Amino acid sequence: SAVIGEQEFFEAGTYIDTLTNIIGCDSIVTLDLSIIEEELKGVFTIKDPSCTNENDGTIRVDSFRNRGPYQIMVNGQSFSGPGNQFNLTAGNYFYEVTDRFGCFLDTLITVNEPPPFTVDLGTDQNLTFGETLSVVVTASDSVTSYSWLPDTIDCQPPCESFSLLLPKSETISVTAISVSGCVATDELLVSVDGTLELFTPNVFTPNGDGVNDYFTIFNKSAFNAIQNITELYIFDRTGREMFRKQNIPVGLETAGWDGSNSGAEAPSGVYFYAAVLTLINEEQITISGNLSLFR
Q1: Binned average pLDDT, 10 residues per bin, the chain of 295 residues
Q2: Concatenated DSSP letters for the chain?
Q3: pLDDT of res. 21
Q4: CA–CA dist 284, 27 (Å, integer)
Q5: Burial level of 78, CB count in 10 A (0-12/13-18/19+)?
Q6: Which among 161, 163, 116 has a CA at the least distance from the CA of 141?
Q7: Rounded CA Rg of the chain
Q8: Which of 26, 180, 193, 266 lies deepest, with the highest CB count within 10 Å?
Q9: Which residues pair with 274 in a beta bridge?
Q10: Taking CA 54 as the corner, what is the angle to CA 49 and CA 57, rounded to the nearest 5 degrees?
């Protein structure tokens, strides 16, 4: 409200009055009265940082009810512009605003830290030589891409899970990028025991019944330590060579010795075998032993 002489005005408008002082002089008074809201209010749009510890958060001032110019302070620092804040980290930002009418606004605005983006390869693994490693990665948000080390890992996108045969102890690491552009990494330490697990039969019965008709060397159970049977030799008790073959696929029983020599059946008895094996780490080893043939 405003008072001219003995009149008080409560509504917005232009008012004209004539005032006479004590010596008789007249004064014409014109009053342009604007009625404003008692409270200064602000409208803000807040954008949190895209990733943990990033500084791309923003506070935009959408409106202070068009009562500028304003005096604006944010966390004690003066600003001549509209008060927009860019490149913000998570935290509290205290706004103090005074409009042209002297009305005052103070408000605390919080820019929140987003949930951390993480990936997890699980606990470290202990494997036996030739044992297959199953790798599964879990992420706290949707992922646009994974990158794996060592770079010998060959998996099909999206590469969230795969199996791997490691010839030696290795550290597997993954780097993931989320849909928000956040980056996370994790490592998996895989310790490989060098103990060789293989199965070499000491008896076989080449009688055509479909059971134990051939002699060869196998990977043991679920282990795949042998890459290739590079050479396999069979000798009788006198040292005479009964069988020789190279590059036999592991596990292909029919590629082994069928108990014959030059097309004739070898008699029951004890024989001697020797083999050169190529392992998954490209190392070659030689093994030998006795073998009993029964008909």
Answers
A1: 65 69 68 67 91 94 78 88 88 91 88 96 94 95 95 88 92 96 97 89 94 94 88 96 96 94 94 97 95 95
A2: -EEETTEEE-SSEEEEEEEE-TTS-EEEEEEEE----SS---EEEEE--SSTT---EEEEEEES-S--S-EEEETTEEESS---EEEEPSEEEEEEEE-TT--EEEEEEEEPPPPPP-EE--S-EEEETTPEEEEE-EESS-EEEEEEESTT----TT-SEEEEE-SS-EEEEEEEEETTS-EEEEEEEEEEE----EE--SEE--SSSSSS-SB--EE-TT---EEEEEEEEEE-TT--EEEEEEEEPTT-GGGSB-SEETTEEPPSEEEEEEEEEEETTS-EEEEEEEEEE--
A3: 63
A4: 117
A5: exposed
A6: 116
A7: 43
A8: 266
A9: 233, 288
A10: 30
What's the pLDDT score for residue 181?
A: 94
| CA-to-CA separations, 212 to 180, 201, 256, 293, in angstroms, rounded | 59, 9, 11, 10
**DSSP secondary structure string for all residues of 102-124:** --EEEEEEEEPPPPPP-EE--S-
Which amino acid is it at 290? Answer: N
- Assigned token pair, 218: 């196998």
- Joined together, the tokens standing for residue 146 give 């994974």
Residue 197 token pair? 């697990």
The pLDDT assigned to 2 comes to 61
**Amino acid 42: pLDDT:** 84
CA torsion, ordered 137, 142, 145, 150, to nearest 10 deg: -20
pLDDT of residue 9: 64
pLDDT value at residue 49: 96
Amino acid making up residue 248 = I
